[in-house]
Design brief:
heterodimer; A: 6-stranded mixed beta sheet; 11 helices; about 20% strand; B: about 260 residues; mainly alpha; 10 helices
Chain lengths: ~325, ~260
């Protein structure tokens, strides 16, 4: 009974937001003219796409665009969320709307495939936690290196993966652990790691250090702790690790990537069972088919993929 | 009547909540009994960490807070700078969010020392930040208590030959502290929850552990487990204080009649 009472308090907030959602839906039906005036090309494109579904490339874009009509949060607009601040190489200079940086570029390409360009794309910021709460979302999709896992997919929906990243460990370049070749070489280290990430899962479940790891809100805090000699090393996804050691922190080096960790797939995060899932997937499929996703990946991530492998045994 | 209204209220909640459109989802992600059983034992260690931080911070806060309240209450004109400094301290420390102090001191000072000995650790300086902020709050509580003791008490004590210090120690403080126990407990219960803020410095305490477990599968039940643990301490803490105060009051009124 008491548990239910607590639930009532929690649910109260959700009801309010749920009502907000209803409003958005009615707004949707009221304003189709705005929609069509925004992307007239989509209107003509879509029937063509459905007539010739076997076509690739340009028509694939039409599919994603037709699919997205009337399904976004704000009619005629796509709302994309990322972290605050967003870190390179995923977003350069914390300005995702420029399309500079890997995830910014991916998001903009997906948006374009879905028929949203220029002013029709709105960027908002959410924390990692705000994005995973089970209620309605205030974004159409969110990307901040969310790893797709079946457990997480119980509560939110993911797109098909747009990137696969390994986990890496880095620290001071002149430390003994810099020459680590096996996990055993890492277990004596005081490790810092960002909370809520699969990096932490690797620290706790795979590396299993003898000293309890320190867990931070973001990698900026972890870097501060490394600077203050509070930790020996940080575990993060490989592109982040390579970027930090190459650009942001002098005297640091990536010790290596953890064997078997190269299977973490990043996906766009959407509200559970969002009708947009098929649209972003169509957009991603089209970007993959046209080779654009690979081009974006090469442009932004090429420098951040190479590191020696630290074996498990 | 109280019973009837309570039953009606609870019944309304029990019936109404599951009817909300999001209940199914919320129940799965916030109130998953299997998940609760799985994470609860894992939360005990981290929660003990919270309790430890509380246990070493609370006495320090009471001592520092009392000293500051003395400093603010000095009457000698020669000691005016002390009073001024204490006032500034309270104004500045109290005027900045606790979380900000913990971040600034907890990350900043260890970077100066560059050591993992005790005096250079994040957790030590995080605790210092907590003691600093809470002692500022608590000093105001003590000051209110001391000022609430009527001037005639001091006059009476001094006329009996007690020195200023003796008056403070034997006459003013015993009465003042009794009066401020409820607001003090208020601050301590608040502290007992704010220790979780130290998690931003890296230590994995209950709130952080709940966050970690939640991030694994986006199931929020661990936060409920953490909330239950915090309640397990704060509710008895409040009840015990109430009980002690009530007993105190009975004894006090008893003596005054006799």
């Amino acid at each position: 009974m008491r548990r239910t009472a607590i639930a009532a308090l929690l649910v109260g907030g959700l009801i309010v937001t749920a009502c907000g959602d209803d409003d958005a839906e009615t707004a949707d039906t009221e304003t189709p003219p705005a929609d069509t005036s925004d992307d007239t090309s989509v209107g003509t494109d879509a029937p063509a796409g459905s007539e010739a579904p076997a076509d690739t490339g340009a028509d694939g874009a039409g599919d994603a665009a037709a699919c997205a009509v009337d399904k976004t949060l704000a009619p005629g607009e796509l709302t994309i969320a990322t972290g605050e601040p967003a870190f390179p190489p995923y977003v350069i200079d914390d300005a995702p709307e420029t399309g500079e940086g890997f995830e910014a570029a991916v998001a903009m390409a997906v948006a374009r495939e879905m028929g949203f360009e220029g002013d029709a794309v709105t960027w908002i910021r959410t924390t990692f936690d705000a994005a995973i709460q089970p209620g309605p979302k205030d974004f159409d999709f969110n990307l901040q290196q969310y790893t797709i896992t079946p457990d997480r997919a119980e509560f939110v929906s993911f797109s098909e993966p747009y990137y696969t990243a390994a986990q890496a460990i880095f620290g001071l370049a002149d430390a003994p652990a810099a020459d680590a070749t096996t996990i055993a070489d890492l277990q004596g280290l005081k490790i810092g790691v960002q909370a809520s990430t699969t990096s932490l899962t690797y620290v706790e479940d795979v590396i299993q250090p003898t000293e309890a790891p320190l867990v931070f809100n973001d990698n900026a805090a972890a870097k501060q702790a490394l600077d203050g000699n509070q930790i020996d090393a940080i575990v993060a996804d490989l592109p982040t690790a390579l970027f930090i050691t190459a650009v942001e922190m002098e005297g640091t080096a990536v010790y290596g990537q953890i064997e078997g960790s190269g299977t973490d797939q990043f996906g766009l995060l959407l509200e559970k069972d969002s009708p947009l899932v098929e649209c972003v997937n169509a957009a991603l499929a089209s970007l993959t088919a046209s080779g654009e996703l690979e081009a974006i990946t090469t442009e932004w991530m090429a420098d951040y993929t190479e590191a020696p492998i630290i074996t498990l045994t | 009547m109280a019973a009837v209204s309570t039953v009606l209220f609870v019944a309304a909640v029990v019936i109404a909540v599951p009817l909300t459109p999001g209940w199914d989802r919320v129940q799965r992600s916030f109130f998953d009994p299997d998940k609760f059983r799985e994470v609860f034992p894992k939360m005990l260690g981290p929660f003990w960490y919270d309790v430890q931080i509380f246990l070493w911070c609370a006495p320090l806060i009471l001592i520092v807070g009392l000293l500051i309240s003395f400093a603010r209450g000095v009457r000698s004109p020669a000691l005016y700078p002390v009073k001024l400094l204490a006032t500034l301290y309270v104004d500045i420390v109290r005027g900045v969010p606790v979380l900000l102090w913990i971040t600034l001191i907890g990350f900043g000072v260890p970077a100066l020392f560059q050591t993992r000995d005790w005096y250079g650790r994040l957790i030590v300086w995080g605790s210092v930040a907590l003691v600093m902020t809470y002692s500022a709050y608590v000093s105001e509580v003590f000051r209110a208590g001391i000022e609430s003791i009527h001037e005639s008490q001091r006059a009476g004590a001094r006329s009996l030959g007690l020195t200023n210090n003796q008056t403070m120690r034997h006459i003013v403080l015993p009465q003042a502290i009794r009066r401020v126990v409820p607001p003090l407990m208020n601050d301590l219960v608040s502290l007992q929850k704010d220790v979780a803020l130290i998690s931003i410095l890296g230590p994995v305490e209950a709130l952080r552990r709940a966050g970690i477990e939640t991030a694994r599968d986006f199931n929020y039940t661990p936060y409920i487990a953490a909330a239950v643990l915090f309640l397990c301490v704060s509710i008895p803490l409040t009840r015990i204080t109430d009980h002690l105060l009530a007993r105190e009051r009975r004894q006090m009124t008893g003596t005054s009649v006799r």
